[in-house]
Write a structure and sequence with these properties.
alpha+beta, 121 residues, extended, 21% strand, 2 helices, 5 strands
């Protein structure tokens, strides 16, 4: 059950629909249990990271760096380059299909509904 502290310096808790993991070494995770994972680290890690979250060195041009050091432009090629073998979790080799565009009437309805928060007046 949450909240819990599985080891010194690590706290796990719930915040709305998210599970939060906070550490005393500067790593904070926020996960919705499905597909959304937010990763935050402190400045002391600047220039020391690589992987799916980028390099955190202030240069966005190398954020899609593969494990072999090559930089790619395609997000799917980048993501697949970091796949690791796990017999318990099979990843598809095929990139996901882009979402279908919204029909104009739905887009207009969404714009109308969101106007209350998007209008600055």
């Amino acid at each position: 059950t949450l909240p819990t502290s599985p080891m010194p310096g690590v706290a796990i808790s719930l915040n709305g629909a998210y599970v939060l993991v906070q550490t005393n070494f500067g790593l904070h995770l926020k996960f919705n249990g499905d597909q959304k994972l937010l990763v935050n680290v402190t400045e002391r890690y600047k220039g020391q990271l690589c992987g799916l979250c980028g390099t955190y060195n202030g240069d966005q041009k190398d954020d899609f760096m593969r494990p072999d050091g090559g930089v790619v432009q395609d997000v799917n090629v980048f993501g697949m380059s970091w796949v690791v073998q796990d017999d318990g979790w099979k990843c598809s080799e095929d990139p996901p299909l882009p979402p279908k565009p919204c029909p104009p009437f739905l887009e207009q309805a969404a714009t109308e509904h969101c106007r209350i928060v998007s209008d600055s007046n």
